[in-house]
Amino acid sequence: MKDKPFNVIKAEYPEFYDWLKEISRFQKVEDFILPDYKNGIRVYFYTHNFRYSISIIPPKTKNKKDEGYMGCTVLDRKPIAGEDWQRGRDLPDGKYCYETWQKIKNAIIAFELVKIAKPKQGMLDKK
To answer: I need a surface site. Which of 41, 51, 103, 124 has the fewest CB within 10 A?
Structure first.
């Protein structure tokens, strides 16, 4: 395939491309997502600390037994001090459908949230 990767994704998997718009600022998928379709369909995107990878295998038939696959992994972009490897984790996976996409999106948001420090008692009273 000599087509640009996003043209392939748009043409063959338009629903997946629409889902990617949901996590792309101003819906500009090409500005935030790196596609790879040489070994199946996989897209990568980055945050300050992590690289996310979403793999899809759409159903080949309309047979209900062939539900396809969608899954996500996350990899630390930097090793932890004293380690010479990057830690990775699995996020949700399941059949190729919007419900699985929602689980993946929710897991990414939860993964990116930073725990807040609770103010000590009395600090709020000083205002």
So the answer is: 124
Average pLDDT value for the chain: 86
Count of domains forming the chain: 1
Task: Provide the whole-model pTM.
Answer: 0.81
Q: Cβ neighbours of residue 30 under 8 Å, at least 6 residues apart?
A: 6
Per-residue DSSP letter, 126: G
**Helix residue spans in 1-114 (DSSP H):** 5-12, 14-22, 29-32, 98-112
Rounded CA separation 11/35 (Å): 14
What burial class does residue 83 get, using C-beta atoms within 10 Å of its C-beta: 0-12 exposed, 13-18 middle, 19+ buried? exposed
